[in-house]
Amino acid sequence: MTECIRVLVVDDSAFMRKALLREISSDPRFEVVGAACDGREGVQMALDLQPDVITLDVEMPVRSGIESLQDLAGKSSAAVIMVSSATEAGAQITLDALALGAFDFVPKTQCKSLLREKILAAASARKKRIKGDAKRPAQPESAEAAAISPPIAALPKGFVPKAVVIGSSTGGPQALAELFTHLRHPLPAPVFIAQHMPQPFTAALARRLKIKSGHAVVEAADGDPVANGVVYVAPGGLQMRAKDGLLSIRPDAGESIYQPSVDVLAASVAEAFGGNVLAVMLTGLGRDGAREFTRLRNAGGWTIAQDALSCTVFGMPKALIDAGGACEVMPLKSIGPRIAEILSKA
Length: 346
Fold this sequence. Notes:
By secondary structure, this protein is α/β, with parallel strands linked by helices. It is 40% helix and 20% strand. The chain folds into 2 domains: 5-135, Response regulator (Rossmann fold, 3-Layer(aba) Sandwich); 154-343, Methylesterase CheB, C-terminal domain (Rossmann fold, 3-Layer(aba) Sandwich), CATH 3.40.50. It has 12 helices and 14 strands. α2 runs parallel beside α3 (65-72), α4 packs across α8 and α7 packs parallel to α8.
């Protein structure tokens, strides 16, 4: 029999604790091992109970979610899911938490639909991390990466990238921040990003990437002109398309469960730029983007998938690789320099 995933709930709201406990306990795969009403109590319970996953409220008295996360660093192996209010301040703090090592987040308004999926993914990633740490001394990361990543491939003759499209989900904000540190200014092509996030988190992500990278990063708006050197982040809860030199931002019309969707975005970019597209699939749950990235490759585009070892969740890149749609597979630290190299040909 499969062992239950042990979950600790930390939230200062009695109403929210009750709602989380009810949602988690309704699934026989999970066991709630404790519930704390503030950050200080949560940290102590985490150290005493050693749960697999912690749901951690972002804003709490005594010790905030960020302070609690810092207190747990190096002391607990639990994967942490931040439970955040869908406000501008909540979004900013949540991105801080992700940068500090939180696995993922769930807006309080979406706990019922997303929480159990996130807990399963968090527990799986934790198990992979613990196994990886256990075997790393015997086989260094470089050796592991070399064993699964093919050598750098030669670009097709005449390939000139006119646009870049990036797909990401769980772990994406950290991966994007790392990637953009390697890209030179100004970018010689427009860059389009579909990161699975609701509003207002995509707006906060765009601001953060702009500050950290110095690039012209914006949360896209309907009617924005497509321009070289600009990074367009698709708004949460909507679908973004490039068409006739402009961006179209519209509500989903039944195209995808993901809003924004990598597939929807990539299909429009491929139509707008033909085969002259560089497509990059970063860490994330599910298989969004695999279909259209594979079509893009078959049309003469170039696709890169993040490798398993460097992914927070090896879902979307794996789906692309399994579909035969990845031209190259490489660790995150190599993707930024590779994009820079390819864009130098633009």
